[in-house]
Design goal:
mainly alpha, 2 domains, 7 helices, about 0% strand
Length: about 140
């Protein structure tokens, strides 16, 4: 008996091929799905996320990148809200000190999601870089 997950994958691809999905979604899914199927048949180790363009081999998963970006956005907002009176270096030291003492200073879901994935609060040097990057946008 075939694996039900494989059956579902084949049904999804068939549904997309028959026009069952919105055209923009099908145009994204089908080429990646074909790449994935061809790689699997050839015995290559290609993840579905990579085949669909959601990540690159050897890189962090898209979910980790997304959690890191959300964490960094929260940290920049936190810095502006609670440490606007300090320059970036001073604010970074204060926030890093809070993290070292395990005072996560918020129940913000963006921060909690990042921590659940094993991401940590960056050190002061990384925080300064995050603040600079945010200011440049």
């Amino acid at each position: 008996m075939p694996d039900p997950n494989i059956t579902q994958w084949r049904a999804l691809m068939d549904f997309a091929e028959r026009g069952g999905l919105p055209s923009d979604i099908a145009a994204w899914l089908l080429p990646g799905g074909y790449r994935y199927n061809a790689a699997c048949k050839a015995g290559a180790a290609v993840g579905l996320d990579v085949a669909l363009g959601l990540g690159k081999p050897g890189r962090h998963g898209w979910w980790t990148v997304e959690a890191r970006e959300n964490r960094d956005a929260f940290l920049c907002e936190f810095r502006q809200r609670d440490y606007a009176h300090l320059n970036d270096a001073e604010a970074a030291r204060e926030i890093a000190a809070l993290a070292r003492r395990k005072l996560y200073f918020s129940s913000d879901p963006r921060l909690l999601a990042a921590l659940k994935l094993g991401l940590r609060i960056p050190d002061a040097k990384q925080l300064r870089a995050i603040f600079r990057k945010s200011a440049a946008v």
